[in-house]
Amino acid sequence: QVQLVESGGGLVQAGGSLRLTCAASGRTFSRYTMGWFRQAPGKERQIVAAISWNERSITYTDSVKGRFTISRDNTKNTVDLQMNTLKPEDTAVYYCAAGWTVTAFPKSYEYWGQGTQVTVSS
Questions:
Q1: What pLDDT sits at residue 26?
Q2: For residue 89, how many other CB atoms are within 10 A of its CB?
Q3: In this structure, are strands 46-51 and 33-39 parallel, antiparallel, or unpaired?
Q4: Which pairing describes strands 92-99 and 46-51: parallel, antiparallel, or unpaired?
Q5: Are 60 and 48 in contact (CB under 8 A)?
Q6: Separate counts of helices (H) and strands (E) for the chain
Q7: CB atoms within 10 A of CB 18
Q8: Burial class (CB in 10 A: 0-12, 13-18, 19+), 88
Q9: For residue range 27-65, what is the model confidence (pLDDT) as tens digits?
Q10: Are 109 and 48 in contact (CB under 8 A)?
Q11: Could you read off the pLDDT of 66-98 as tens digits, one per residue?
């Protein structure tokens, strides 16, 4: 069992930066692929980025490539999402998730956090 808690969301102006952190409990964190998803009002939940347990496989959705960076620290049981050059269209609730493969499909992830709101003003 893995429990996930996100932090670091907030309100930022366009062009600004935020760093999200997902803290995981459980001894098996290092075995999981970790993903960040987001869901805007009225839209489906979509992948933002994902990283494999050994960091050898990393993927980003096209709209955040070059702006966002996912990283993990298996000694601290954390996964971060550094978000730079934020745009109003990045506004959403951001969720951390744990699964077994690097995939864009939410149903492939087994555990989810409660989410943290990110709002980017224009």
A1: 80
A2: 11
A3: antiparallel
A4: unpaired
A5: yes
A6: 0, 11
A7: 21
A8: exposed
A9: 788 899 999 999 999 999 999 999 999 999 999 999 999
A10: no
A11: 999 999 999 999 999 999 999 999 999 999 999
